[in-house]
Amino acid sequence: MNTSNNLPEIIGIGGTFASGKDTLAEYLVRNYGYNHVSTGDIVRIAARERYGNIERPTLQITGGELREEGGSGVLAEKALQRPRPLVITGIRTSGEAETIKAAGGVMLFIDADPEKRYERMQIRQRDNEVQQTLDEFLAKEKKEIEGTVANADQNIGVVRSLSDIMLDNSGELNKFLNDTVKTLQQHQPRPTASR
């Protein structure tokens, strides 16, 4: 634990699209001195090195290759090499969640009202997200939540089931951020059996 503020030394964040994962991570960086690592950034660096671009199809191929080469927890393993306290976003596989928990970390899962998340996605204008209809947004998310049985596949439904703390970010942002910090301060990670 980070004794100066009684927050976990390692926090993993998974969640639904546009639920506020990076917003929470950046709040922890600004206010509590965390280092933030996005598994998506790790994939983007590898995609640039391997293919010279970071288009969405290339990122999906590269993420799959990295998991095939290093196992389903490889992105979390790479992130855990960074200095602590550490917040890791973009947790999308059971292997990543299990790796964070095995390192003594706490897993959070953030969700929010789907229409509110769709509005946020439209505002942030990432990739080609703004071209999606609400129905397309929900269909894409359903596919990612359900995933498949294989451990390496992206399956945020399984990440949700492995998470220690469930959060709802449908309301006022500052209240969500403050309440989350209070929840983290009260949470003591359970020891995990070594693999």
Would you mind describing this structure in some detail?
The protein is α/β, with parallel strands linked by helices and 195 residues long. Helix content is 51%, strand content 12%. It has helices at residues 21-32, 39-51, 56-70, 74-79, 94-102, 114-124, 134-146, 156-162, 173-186, and strands at 10-15, 35-38, 86-89, 106-111, 165-168. A five-stranded parallel β-sheet has the order 2-3-1-4-5. The longest helix is centred in the N-terminal third of the chain and has 15 residues, at 56-70. Mean pLDDT is 85; it is low at 148-152.
Total domain count: 1
**What fraction, in percent, of the residue positions are helical?**
40-55%
The general outline is globular
Q: Going across the major beta sheet, what is the strand order?
A: 2-3-1-4-5
Tally of strands: 5
Provide mean pLDDT, rounded. Answer: 85
CATH-defined superfamily: P-loop containing nucleotide triphosphate hydrolases
* Tally of helical segments: 9
Order of helices and strands: EHEHHHEHEHHHEH
Beta-strand content estimate: 5-15%
Q: Do you know the CATH architecture? A: 3-Layer(aba) Sandwich
What is the C-alpha radius of gyration, as a whole number of Å? Answer: 16 Å
Q: What is the CATH C level class, in words?
A: Alpha Beta
Largest sheet: 5 strands, parallel
Going by helix content, strand content and strand pairing, the class is: alpha/beta
Would you identify the regions where 5 or more consecutive residues have pLDDT less than 50?
A: 148-152
End-to-end separation in angstroms reads 22 Å
Briefly note the CATH topology name.
Rossmann fold
